[in-house]
Design a protein that fits this description.
Blueprint: E1 5-9, H1 10-14, H2 21-30, E2 35-37, H3 44-49, E3 53-58, H4 74-91, E4 95-98, H5 108-129, E5 132-136, H6 151-161, E6 166-171, H7 172-177, H8 182-188, E7 193-198, H9 215-224, E8 230-233, H10 241-265
Parallel strand pairs: 1-2, 1-8, 2-3, 3-4, 4-5, 5-6, 6-7, 7-8
Helix pairs in contact: 4-5, 5-6, 8-9, 9-10
Length: about 270
């Protein structure tokens, strides 16, 4: 089993401290993290100099003026997403995160159909570009009215689009807050998942053994199921971000090592 691939979402750790990006990146790299997520465009060069790859960028349409779940807004949104795909491809970025948008009274079936239609229109370009579009799931407490607020919505979406370039960004914290059995859901639908976001629950703090999510069992089951993607730390630090990312990374590596040892022993 190869070493666990760790990434970190910039917004959690540099919020209000954007001038410290180069120092943060250097520290992150020293900890063995391999990628930064959703960094500001003017930070890309600094990330590269620190030996970090830019893993993903966030596309438009999270909850603003244009949304993927609104067919009538595709004329504005899809060209913007095409630009994101082209930029990601030219910059060696693996993923573009896409969003359903808010319901605003729209039934889930109708929103899902519109999301599928929009993603199908983009899938060919994404496949050619070697970029994966990842629909992110979010909980309704932090993001009231967001339509893709369940694994079922996202997995139905990926199944219906039926493209290797359209997958799910499954946020473990968000779906745990929604009451999902996150461990079972990820294993059951692993073929549709391109990326995982990690945080403790319910307070979105450092993912350790005091949390409501049993990450030791989660990591074991998901690795045994064949997941080889990135584990994206996206928690809200209570103190020094580097120290907490160090602790989280070490803990998850220990879970992965235990899993590997069990597999070698035939357990």
């Amino acid at each position: 089993m190869s070493e666990l691939k760790l990434s970190a979402s910039e917004w959690c750790y540099l919020k209000g401290k954007e001038g410290d990006a180069a120092t943060f990146y250097a520290g992150l790299s020293e900890l063995g993290y391999g990628a930064i997520e959703m960094p500001s465009r003017h930070h890309w060069d600094a990330a590269s100099r620190a030996g970090l790859r830019v893993l993903n960028i966030a596309g438009p349409g999270m909850s603003g003026d244009v949304s993927l779940n609104r067919r009538e807004q595709h004329g504005v949104l899809l060209p913007q997403l095409r630009e994101c795909i082209a930029l990601a491809s030219a910059s060696g970025i693996e993923q573009v995160i896409i969003f359903s948008g808010n319901r605003q009274g729209l039934e889930d079936d109708a929103g899902l159909r519109a999301c599928v239609e929009g993603a199908k229109a983009l899938a060919g370009q994404a496949e050619q570009a070697g970029v994966t579009l990842t629909l992110e799931v979010l909980n309704r407490f932090d993001h009231p009215d967001y339509q893709a607020d369940s694994g079922a919505f996202a997995f139905d979406f990926a199944w219906a689009v039926s493209s290797p370039a359209v997958r799910v960004l499954y946020d473990i914290y968000h779906m745990h807050r929604m009451g999902e059995d996150v461990r079972a859901e990820v294993v059951r639908h692993l073929e549709y998942i391109a990326h995982l976001h990690v945080a403790g629950s319910p307070a979105r703090n450092t993912p350790d053994e005091r949390q409501a999510i049993n990450y030791a069992g989660f990591v074991t089951d998901v690795l045994n199921a064949g997941y080889g993607g990135w584990w994206g730390m996206e928690f809200l630090p209570g103190g020094d971000p580097i120290a907490e990312l160090d602790a989280a990374g070490a803990l998850f590596r220990s879970y992965a090592a235990s899993t590997a040892n069990s597999m070698e022993d035939g357990v």
